Amino acid sequence: MRKFTLRNAVVSGILMIAVSLFSSSSLFAQDVGEVVNGKVVDSSGNPVSGASILNVKSGKGTSADKDGNFSLRAVKGQTLQISFVGYQSTRVVYKGQTNLAVTLLRENAVLGDVVVIGYGTQRKEAVTGSVASISGNNLREVPTPNISAALQGRLPGVAISQTSSQPGATMQIRIRGTRSLTATNDPLVVLDGLPFPGNIADIDMNNVKSLDVLKDASATAIYGSRGANGVILITTYKGTSGQDPRIALNSYYGVSKVFSPFPMMNGPQFAALRKAAGLYKNQDGSIQLGTDESLNTNTNWQNLLYQTGKVTNEDISVSAGTKRGSYSYGASYYENDGVIPTQSYKRYSLHGAVDQRVGKYLRLGFTTNNNYNYTQGSQVGLYNTLSNSPLASPYKADGSIKYVVAMPLDQQWVSTKKVLDSLKDNYLSQQKGYATYNSVYGELQIPGVPGLAYRVNVGLNLYQINKGSYTAVGVNSNNPTAPSTASSGDSTGTDWTIENLLTYDRSIGKHQFNAMALYSTERTQISSSNISGIGVPADALQYYNIGTAGQEIDVLPANQYYSERGLKSWMGRLMYSYDNRYLISATIRSDGASVLAPGHQWHTYPAVSAGWNVANESFMRGISLINLLKLRVGYGETSNQAVVPYSTLGVLSTNPYNFGASTYATGYYVSQLPNASLSWEYSKTWNYGIDFALLDNRLSGTVEYYITKTNGLLQSVTLPPTSGVNSYVANVGNTQNKGIEFSLDGTILKTNSGWTWDAGVNMSFNRNKITRLNTGVTADQTNWWFVGKPINVIYDYKKIGLWKTSADSASGHENILQPGGNVGEVKVLYTGPTGSNGTPTRAISPDDRQVLNADPNFIGGFNTRVAYKGFDLSAVGIFQSGGILISTVYGPSGYLNLMSGRRNNIQVDYWTPTNINAKYPKPGGQMSGDNPQYASTLGYFSGSYVKVRSITLGYNFAKWLRQFGIPQARLYVTAQNPFVTLSPYHRETGLDPETNSYGDQYQAVTTQYTHRLLVQGFNTPATRSFLVGLNITF
Amino acid sequence: MKRLYINSILLGAVIGVLFLGGCKKVLQEQPRSNYTPDFFNTQTGVVGGLTEMYAHLRYIYGQGYYYNTLEVGTDESTYGQSADANFLVMDMTGQGVINATTSRADVIWNTCFTNINTASGVIQSGSKAGVNVALTSEANFFRAFDYFLLVQTFGGVPLDLGAGNLQFNTKPTPTSVRNSVQTVYTQCIFPDLQAAVSNLPMTARLTGTVTKPVAQLFLAKAYLTYAWWLKNPNSIPTFPDSGRTDPAGHDANYYFQQAYTTAVSAIQNPGSYGLQPTFYDLNVGSNDRNNEIMLYADHTQNSQQYNAASLTYSNGGAPDNFSCWMQTWNYPVLTSSSTSGSWKNVNSVQRASVQGYGRPYIRMTPTIGAVTQTFSDKTNDSRYDGTFQTVYRANIKEAGVAGPVYNANYMPVNEGDAVLSFLNDESAGTIDYTNSVYKSSIGAGVLPGRADFVVSPQGISRIVYPGLWKISAYRTDNGTGLGNPNAASTRPWNIAKFSELFFIAAEAAVEGATPTAVTGAYVNDGTAYGLINVLRARAGKWKFSNAANAAQVADHSAAMVAATPPTIDINYLLAERSREYYGEGYRWYDLIRTQQWANLSTTYQICGAAYGNHTPQTFTRTITPNLWLRPIPQGQLDAMQVSAAVKAAYQNPGY
Q1: Which of B29, B31, B35 has the alpha carbon at shortest distance from A595?
Q2: Given CB atoms, is A720 within the 8 Å cutoff of chain B?
Q3: A630 contacts A125 by C-beta, under 8 angstroms
Q4: Is A620 exposed, middle or buried (0-12, 13-18, 19+ CB in 10 A)?
Q5: Exposure of B508 by Cβ count < 10 A (0-12 exposed, 13-18 middle, 19+ buried)?
Q6: Of A360, A479, A673, Cβ closest to residue B482
Q7: Which of A849, B230, B365, B467 is deepest in the core (most CB within 10 A)?
Q8: Which positions ≥6 away from B616 have C-beta within 8 Å?
């Protein structure tokens, strides 16, 4: 390995030197030819000022003026290349036209688009697989620092869910549903052609030129064992050859406020609840108060914590091209200070790309994307704030701030802005990430064989995270002398990829061929270490010298990590089209992986797809209504290589122990059995699609149907305790996803007076189910997996109301069903046998739990844009119909709906003898743990909602600046998350209905739901932001 | 230019050759941060497996929810004011049903089999790796220990985990077949413990590791328990039901005699073990790991890593040692007055990591009967004082409050003075529980002339009751402050004591074993009377009074022995066991072994769950025959890949 890395370094060094040596060798241009006059317009006929026009032969170029006019010299037969940011470059052969009219199409226009596919590009018209694309400009309509957030609701079949609401958090991406039970369901991300191993937040949004999502297996099979979850191809900006140097500046600044605070009870409401619950009362029947509580106090702890957040983005980039090369580089800065004090995210990015033709046959280049990010404040949770008694004052009698508040049973640390501000450097948690993603390539046109080229891509990546936290003496504890604690951890990942590609691209008459062969090798190494200490002697040391911790220093074996994995691949692809009417593509790939046991390492993946451009047939010529009609069908096999390294070998876990006060040893036990026959999960997908464009391309869209069957699901199979081992990893079970997606984009209005109105909508219907578990098993209750049901289900009792009255309780046999239960408590569905006259024969038992489908019926997004002269108004939204939103804030695991009056409670409509139609049960009734019996049923809400993610009003004032050589200038204001509607959850609670945590996070008890189920917990509240932004290009 | 082309071609070719040829190792694996099961085949791995034998104890002993299943529902305890369903169902007073999901005996089910497998692995690979049999016999001991725990709790359990009876299982096995109770005893527990008795050394390998006398204690107890099972005096059902016959054809008396002989043998040759001079010495935190304790789940305040639990805060989950919270009431609510003459609340007793205090959880409460009947003698017998925290003292200085504060009768209370006392009996006269003038905040009473609030034994409620001094946390790192009362206890949890050998021999004798005179340091006539009096005499020796928080040297041994009835019966033995082991998690096993559970626990008395409740109420428990075996946990049934009928047949009857 080491030798090999060295070799990489040497080779990449040679390549770089070659680039720098030869990049200056441009040809001398000659001032020959006649003056050509022309005009560059966009598809609406508006001038494209600033467009660059290059005579490819002479290397001379110019740019269009404010009216789109240009002039330069050319000889007949020479080719002019016209390009501009946000538009597709085009080439025109000068044939002596007196007024050369050039129309530049926007990058997201339907026809003639080039889409990025695996290991290459293809005209959209020729694509036979399922590929959804969006331009960087469209992505940026929702101002956000990372791609995953911007992608939400933009493409059909791509479901983006929020997993954290903290600054800098990324989102979960699922392409066409969830197929794996335990392995990753995350898609493969490919950045500028090479697999991207890092965090998607490391990719600078500002630098994204386009994003293409490969959804079906005929498109992703080329990625073989990495393709099963779909592939996201991200292309960053490069200079365009022949383009004048250009600087682009993007900047925005905004403020954010809490979208809606958690609806906790106020003082009188809480006092009423505590009284109704009757658990904390004095001898005379009055409610018991903690020493810090008083009935005259009404503290809103959330108001004392939240602040106005701040978001800012600055981005500058320079790009240019010469005849034989191009370059682009830029830098950006993003900062988001959250609504919870101390929470913030900052990111600094640098990127660059150089492409240089050397001589006649060789092309060399590299791209580099670097970023440093800094996240703070994850130590400040909301639980104490939300559960603190509103009857307690944040101030002592002398006006100084309290750090701990005493309630009847609990003493709780106070997190208010004042407290956090006062602590500053004594209570921190921060993470610093540094990542550099680089690729170097060389491409050689094989002399003598037109269309044959050899290319080598070398990817070299390094990503590092360093995190640390420090809590000073007595901070975040009821005990003022609790010792200081510090912890520090770092992780480093390195990987390299080498791809050798041979491509052959020829057109002979109406026949177009593209053939490719690839051999690639990649290796990834990740290691991390963690240490923690107790009793750091001075606050100033924080976590930077844990060696000084006087009381204890821990290096826990479970917190140290190392893994290495390698993959070798062979691949071939043939694409053929006849007359742009009949299209076919066939792929085969073979992968060998280190994570599988020897003898089981290699697998081969075939795929084939075909398309028919019906509109190009002669019989369609007369039908001018239809501009595009293409039918597609594809089949392919892929797999999910997410076997954790060393899974085939089994695991010994450790347990530390002390023999006497100070003799220490570590115990070992088998926690996971080896499985040499472990393999990957294989997916087979059929995809059927129709692409169409009508009415002079004013209405275009795609409808697709797919069915994916995934076999050999990787599972950590929970074994019964009697087997002596918790689990083993095996390929058992199958899942299926099928669905329909459609997207529709249209220009609704376009007038000569300058009005345009565009709108787009997309919808995805995915139906997921487990089709097989282990042999003879139809249900795995431990993991909530059931054959015939989706992966995302809830397995719980079903609430059918409350025992409203004693008559209700008597006739419904509450005494049998819920022994010890009372009127006013939750009534759940009984599914057991009944005796004569309908009397249940047993109490409610685990057998009464139901499988509840949590998946939405459909999801989608919409966008619209109205423009008039320099003004534009656009909106982007998302929607979801059906599904279950799990709100742990209302359920038992959040400990915020205890209904006992012990700690503050979420404001709910609870049962009292005079309010028998309430939704929530009687306070202080029968308990299960600290919560009301069957309280888990209180946390389920309809998942439906419509949410407008951003509304932007922009004004292009470039016409006033053209005289200063500034061709593009736009000022805009954006409202982010302005409103939510059609959401039952939002209606009841006022809260944003999007999930904000994984199933085991941001709850008091984190074992209620599995990690994979996204829930709404007491994470940082959702925000609403208002931004002002400026884009200038000159 | 031409040269350039050639160079380019060469360069390309070089690159190609380099990358096509390289790195055959790409597909090879070598883990570097974790162990694979192969590690067990090394000497170090075997020793690590042995460490795991001890580490696994922490997942059972100190686990407060499992602890609750051994105390709530017996004559020792009931649920407290803040009890959740875990505790309520165990009380069997109509507050929910014990079933496969509510029973917390899952704690041992989910822990023991993993350790049994590790033990089998150590025994198997130990012999291959040439490890001394004295070492691997520790694994034999723990395999028997775990099976003994399981068979008492659930009835018959599987000996075959997937690779054959008592074999190290490396095969995923989603099925299970239960063996009968007698099979588990005669094929595993007895042979393993006999091997441990033969092979273990007399002195411990490391602090707290098992020795021959420890193995003898458990072998004797297993014989005793099995003898009772064969005898079955109250016709309690067993499961799987394969008749109560011994495969070797022995009867109950044979095993009572085996129990007696084995226990007496250990008493006569105790090695380094022995009785502590006083009951106080036995249980005071500063004397942890004393020579009377034969087995414990260890913890330490010196290393968070090896303590495997935070030293500052605990969430109440294994391997934390948090059982001691459960029967601790919310004493920090107690208030005194900061001024004399007019009442102004001030908290006078704070949470502190001091023995007798610690973290309140109010999940469990002693029954009035335990305080008044089990511990009827509180003056000669030091064990009431050595078990309960009956006096709560002001610790205002640690909390930064300058004294004095004013308490009952507006009498001043200084640092260390009593704020609340639980009285020994009802003799003090009428207590004023009104809290009309002096507001204790907990409904405690006032007696004329006393500065402390008082509660008499008949006034003990589900919310205000004496705490458990014996097992509560003890730290030496509190400095001048209150310490870390919200951490789990850093004391070892005691599992087995030397004193139990006397009880085992006495119980066997009561049930018919032939006594023989006991020689050695604990010489006696070997009858139940003689054996028990060794312990009762020790209980009469006083060194320190917790109630007075002062030295109190006295010897009431003679009075204690004089009070022993000449004929010891099983109920007297059980009461004596409760005095010796109250609140240590012995009770339920003692009661089901001797089949006296329903007789002794069906009714109990306690006052209500609100402050100011001082009227005893009587509760009646419904202890049905099926409850004598705990339900097989739902997780086992869920994870078994077998038909519903097989699952149903796997479960104990009545669940």
Answers
A1: B29
A2: yes
A3: yes
A4: middle
A5: buried
A6: A479
A7: B365
A8: B368, B458, B605, B606, B607
Which residues on adjacent β-strands are paired with residue B382? none
φ, ψ for residue A1025 (rounded to 5)?
Answer: -125, 155
Kindly state the tokens that stand for A977: 């998350």
Identify the pLDDT of residue A107.
56
Q: ipTM, 2 decimals?
A: 0.94
Interacting residues of A867 by C-beta distance below 8 A, sequence separation 6+: A754, A755, A756, A757, A873
**What span, in angstroms and rounded, lies between the C-alpha atoms of A441 and A497?**
11
B4 vs A359, A534, A652: nearest CB = A359
End-to-end CA distance of chain B: 90
| Per-residue burial over A109-123, b = 16 or more CB atoms within 10 Å of its CB, e = otherwise | bbeebbbbbbbeebe
Look up the pTM and report it.
Answer: 0.80
Q: Does A841 touch chain B (CB under 8 A)?
A: no
**pLDDT at residue A184 in the model:** 85
Work out the number of other CB atoms within 10 angstroms of the CB of residue A619: 7
The tokens for A801 are 């109301």
CA distance A99 to chain B (A): 39
Which tokens belong to A854?
A: 């949590």
Max mean pLDDT among A37-51, B136-150, B396-410 falls in B136-150
Is residue A994 within 8 Å of A948, Cβ to Cβ? Answer: no
Instruction: State percent of chain A over pLDDT 90.
Output: 49
Residue pair B323/B527 in contact (Cβ under 8 Å)? The answer is: no
Whether A658 and B307 lie within 8 Å, measured CB to CB: yes
The residues facing A607 across adjacent strands are A587, A636
* Out of B33, B306, B636, closest to residue A560 by CB: B33
Do residues A117 and A129 touch, judged by C-beta distance below 8 A?
A: yes
Whether residue A665 lies within 8 A of chain B, CB to CB, comes out as yes
Among candidates B36, B47, B53 on the partner chain, residue whose Cβ is nearest the Cβ of A652: B36
* Alpha carbons A750 and A758: distance in angstroms, whole number: 9
From CA A763, how far away is CA A627, in angstroms rounded?
A: 23
State how far the Cα of A610 lies from the Cα of B506, in Å rounded to an integer.
88
DSSP 8-state class, residue B607: B
Q: Among all chains, which residue has been given the structure tokens 């080439």?
A: A91
The letter for the amino acid at A127 is V
Measured CA to CA, the distance from residue A380 to residue A413 in angstroms comes to: 11
A649 touches chain B (CB under 8 A): yes
Q: Which CA distances in Å does A630 have to A113, A120, A692?
A: 15, 21, 6
Query: Hey, what's the torsion of the CAs at A776, A782, A788, A792, to 10 degrees?
Result: -150
B372 min Cα distance to partner chain A (Å): 25
Asked if residue A639 has pLDDT above 70, the reply is yes
Instruction: Determine, for residues A660 and B53 on separate chains, whether the beta-carbon distance falls below 8 Å.
Output: no
